[in-house]
Amino acid sequence: MILLIAREPIDLKSLMGILKMTNRTRFKNKFIDPLIDANFIEYLIPDKPKSQFQKYLTTEKGKKLLELIMDH
């Protein structure tokens, strides 16, 4: 679901709101960080991952995964 939502740049607070998540630390540790580590989403400000202006975007690898999932 995060890969679908982040096809357009989105900030963490908005992403959490859409998914009805409330614990920022848990959400980031459990969902966002693993997706970044796997290169499925990326920071739009890579040199400042904790910036208050940080947004996330699905990578090409993430888009390919979405295509595979949606084709089945």
Which fold does the CATH topology refer to? Answer: Arc Repressor Mutant, subunit A
Number of domains: 1
* Strand order, largest beta sheet: 1-3-2
Helix count, per DSSP?
4
Number of E-state strands = 3
Task: Return residue spans where pLDDT drops below 50 for at least 5 consecutive residues.
Answer: none
Main β-sheet description = 3 strands, antiparallel
Give the averaged pLDDT, no decimals: 96
What do we call the CATH homologous superfamily? Winged helix-like DNA-binding domain superfamily/Winged helix DNA-binding domain
Distance between the termini: 16 Å
N-to-C series of helices and strands: HEHHEEH
Shape label? globular
Q: In CATH terms, what is the architecture?
A: Orthogonal Bundle
The amount of beta strand, in percent, is: 5-15%
Helix content range: 40-55%
Structural class: alpha+beta
The CATH class, by name, is: Mainly Alpha
Oligomeric form of this entry? single chain
Gyration radius, in Å? 12 Å
Describe the overall structure.
The protein is an alpha+beta fold and 72 residues long. It has a single domain (2-71), classed as Arc Repressor Mutant, subunit A, CATH 1.10.10.10. 51% of the residues lie in helices and 12% in strands. The protein is built from 4 helices and 3 strands. It has helices at 2-5, 12-18, 24-37, 60-71; strands at residues 10-11, 41-43, 55-58. The longest helix is centred in the middle third of the chain and has 14 residues, at 24-37.
